[in-house]
Fold this sequence. Notes:
By secondary structure, the chain is of the alpha/beta class. It has one domain (about 1-140): Rossmann fold, CATH 3.40.50. The protein contains five helices and five strands, in the order H-H-E-H-E-H-E-H-E-E. The chain has a three-stranded parallel β-sheet, with helices on one face. A two-stranded antiparallel ribbon has the order 4-5. Helix 2 (about 10-25) runs parallel beside helix 3. The longest helix has 17 residues, at about 10-25.
Amino acid sequence: MGNDFDRPLNERGLRDAPEMAKRLVNKVSTIDAFISSPALRAKTTAEFFVKEYAVLTDEIIFITSLYHSPAENFYSVLKQLPNELNSVALFAHNPGITYFANELIKNVQIDNMPTCGIFALTIDCKSWTNFATAKKQFLFFDYPKAI
């Protein structure tokens, strides 16, 4: 997978990830699963978030198909989730994560998902298999430089 896969978070990412994790905890009190690309920078970011949620790092679910994935890979991952999960956090990469976010809520579009950006929504369905067609409601979009 090469050098990009093993590229660490830069200084800004190491500063922003814990701050964004704190912001998310203040907005969303519980996350049932943390799902990440296994690439080093996504993995490191996910580790900051599970620490803030007092979850063990070995509970992060690593899915290789989230590394440089097209939007359809996100749907594939989500539709396979067990239905007892009510909330999940995904950690992945551009440009796929931006494309995916823009497909979710038609009237909320972002030019580029910033590093450590958070795009949150609720879905109205009983089964993750119905994620793609479920009614979705935008909650918030937050990123390190947002004031």
